[in-house]
Amino acid sequence: VQLQACGGGLVEAGGSLRLTCTASGRTFSTYAVGWFRQAPGKEREIVAAINWSGGVTTYADFVKGRFTISRDNAKNTVYLRMDSLKPEDTAVYYCATDHTPLARSLPLQYTIWGQGTQVTVSR
Q1: Would the CA dihedral through 31, 37, 46, 11 be positive or negative?
Q2: Following DSSP, what letter does each residue of 15-30 receive, concatenated?
Q3: C-alpha distances in angstroms, 75 versus 23, 70, 117?
């Protein structure tokens, strides 16, 4: 399976974006998917993760109440809705998956990564 992330861009603080992660090659409807981000000079960190069915989601504390992860398995797609964006949310955002149905929080637990999409939040 290959992943492609898109939907990033430049937005003012307080604005919204929706990122999309689309799988190709084979379905990932039985796999969990995570969204991660990496800012310059910082380590890659978990933003949110969703299990195979969409019934279980987890969020990093710094995005709780602002971001929403969801999936549409019929479209082989996972979304990250980002509201109330802050300048500190500026980073490259990646989606990732692995051959497991359970949502996990560590980058090393994912083996298949998309290419990343840049999100820039201005003050």
Answers
A1: negative
A2: --EEEEEEEESS--TT
A3: 9, 12, 20
Nearest residue to 75 via CA among 20, 22, 31? 22
pLDDT single digits (tens) 38-95: 999 999 999 999 999 999 999 999 999 999 999 999 999 999 999 999 999 999 999 9
Give me the DSSP letters along the chain: -EEEEE--EEEETT--EEEEEEEESS--TTS-EEEEEE-TTS--EEEEEE-TTSS-EEE-GGGTTTEEEEEEGGGTEEEEEE-S--GGG-EEEEEEE-S-SS----GGG--EE---EEEEEE-
Under DSSP, is residue 117 helix (H, G, I), strand (E, B) or coil?
strand
Q: Could you give the CA distance from residue 84 to residue 98 in angstroms, rounded to a whole number?
A: 30
